[in-house]
Amino acid sequence: MFFRLIVRQARQKWGISCLLFFAMASLVVLYVYLRNSTQFTNRAMQIIMKNMGHNLVLLPEEANALDTYRCTDEQVLFSDEATRTLAKHRGLNSKYYVSTLQKLVPLGGTKLLLTGIEPVKSPGETREKRNPISPLGPGRARLGAEAARALGVKTEKEIAVLGSSFRVEEIVPERGTLDDYRVYIPLGDCQKLLGREGRINMILAFECLHGGGTLSDVEARQRRNLAKILPGFKQITKTDISRGRFMARLTTQRYLYYLLGLVLCITVVVIAITGLQEVSERRQEAGIMVAMGTSYLYIVGLYVVKILLVALLASAAGFLAGSGLSVWLTRPFLVFQTQPVSIVWGHLPKVMLLTCIVAVVAEIIPMIKLVRMDPSAILTEE
Amino acid sequence: MLRMREVTRAYAREGETVRALDGVSLTIDEGEFLVIQGASGSGKSTLLLALGGMLRPTAGDVLHRGTSVYSQSSAWRNRYRRSTVGFVFQRFFLIPYLTVLDNIRMPLCVRHSPRGATAKATALAEGLQISKRLGHRPSELSVGEQQRVAMARALVGDPGIILADEPTGNLDAVNAKILAERLGEENRRGRTVVLVTHDPALMDIGSRKLRLTSGKIEDLP
Q: Does B113 lie at the interface with A, CB-CB under 8 angstroms?
């Protein structure tokens, strides 16, 4: 009889029931669309910002950074073991390390920056989350735009560097920095050519800016941890990049949370108003049920189970529609590496649970009104 | 036995205290058919609801077989209403989205004893000449039929006490007679009936008559 009461009441008041269902489903659509599209927008934003490159330079304390920037012969050299030590630790905010050895060499009638690079894999790297600098295979080279121009080569052409031959696999677009003059080759090859086996003069790192607090807090935390793991090293932050990434992360996350909070509040208000109206409309029914000796738990159960059933149906329908909408509208333009915008099925149980919780919370006020109604007054109304 | 002991029920209305019941003492024996007459607003419905465990008196007590109804828990009063009391109201209060059959058997279903509920409801509907309407909704019935459904619903749980609040108030003479006869029949089967009415035609169907005036009760000859 319990479920018959719920189903028959919903059928008789089908207009209100449909309205409630569509209102809840629409809000779930909005919620899922926002959550999904913002999650992927956030990811796309991170990829875009990641393309700005590494934002940390790690050097020995005694190194003069100006020598490193100017690439002079006074650059301090240190063991490439330092990069592997860093890469083993999970306690740092930095990751995606690159060991770098650089030297200004005469090439193609001009001076270019021969740069040996070796990205060192950190634990937790995936195809989606990976070092922004990809490794070079043996005998392969990557050229900055000005270097390619000076050497007059295109991709897949051979170049000779200090007597060794390298095939150009990529020409990096113009950046307006020293990088335009670099000739990147594998670190091992560079160390051999320069007679500097096992030595590097710079570590590039990518600092993740999560973990809470302001940008300064993140920076301070990173410096403290670095001092513990790799004493005798200093960290130079490319603040423009860090700040840009930090602000981008903050903006999209806040936008998401505020918007989702707003949607949840509207959902609570819609359900509460519908619930209050329903309690008023069904007051005589509640009154006669009390007169029959029905407990308030049973009567409240009729409302709560009904709203839960509507919430379950609306959340499932809303999830499908909201996810579909986010895929349809944002997939064509959002940047991705390996995962395009897609339906995140793992969110379905969470969305259903959240909708049910919101529905029950929203029913609290109507249920308080229901149990505070005076059935004797209802039954003696003229 | 059902007793009211010095029962007062006061309401605050527009800043004034109105006593719907004013020190009412009353004893209703088991199997008695009590008719209470009174004008509109005299406190008849309040008295009935207080007897049925629906309305806590401001002062005094209601006792059923010596147990104070309002000293017990609300769960106890729920059980009391489910197993002992059957209400019939002037406005029927049928549940609009349920069929006649479901309306009649509902008291049994909500007390988690639905076994035999359909057979019992059908038998009662036959006795009240509404068996052909079992699949209908209340809105498809005449007023008289609706009241008979309400009557069947009150009887389906075999209550020892029937509390009828102006049950003929909305009925024509023919339907009022059918209902009055049915109440008399139920009384002859041993049920206690308390009928409140201002219909003079119903005054003589009971075994005892009382009048309620401004919350005070008096015997009628």
A: no
| Exposure on the CB side of residue B58, measured as CA atoms within 13 A | 15
A292, B107 in Cβ contact below 8 A? yes
Burial class (CB in 10 A: 0-12, 13-18, 19+), B147: buried
Question: Tens digit of pLDDT for each residue in A175-218?
Answer: 898 999 999 999 999 999 999 999 999 999 988 777 677 888 88
In total, chain A counts a number of residues equal to 382
Tokens of residue B49, six digits: 């609801």
pTM for the whole thing? 0.73
Q: Directed axis angle between helix A283-291 and helix A296-330, to 10°? A: 140
The reply to whether residue A4 touches residue B83, judged by beta carbons under 8 angstroms, is no
**A184-223 residues labelled b (16+ CB within 10 A) or e (exposed):** bbbbbbbbebbebeebbbbbbbbbbbeeeeebeebbebbe
| Nearest Cα to Cα of residue B9 among B36, B45, B63 | B45
Residue-by-residue DSSP string for A80-113? THHHHHHHH-SSSSEEEEEEEEEEEEEETTEEEE
How remote is the C-alpha of A346 from its chain's centroid?
Answer: 16
Domain range annotation of chain A: 2-48+247-381, 56-237
Q: Are A161 and A151 in contact (CB under 8 A)?
A: no
Instruction: Please give the full DSSP string across A15-62, using - where no structure is assigned.
Output: HHHHHHHHHHHHHHHHHHHHHHHHHHHHHHHHHHHHTT---EEEEETT
Establish if A282 touches chain B: CB-CB under 8 angstroms.
Answer: no
Chain B residues in contact with A12 by the CB 8 A cut-off are 96-97
Summarize pLDDT for A244-287 with one digit per residue, the tens. Answer: 888 887 887 788 888 888 888 998 998 899 889 989 988 888 99
Three-state DSSP state, A78: strand
Q: Is A375 on the interface with B (CB under 8 A)?
A: yes
Q: Count other Cβ atoms within 10 Å, centred on residue A113.
A: 20
Is the Cβ pair A380, B46 closer than 8 Å?
yes
CA B100 to chain centre: 19
Instruction: Give the DSSP letter of residue B53.
Output: T
Question: Are the CB atoms for A92 and A222 separated by under 8 Å?
Answer: yes
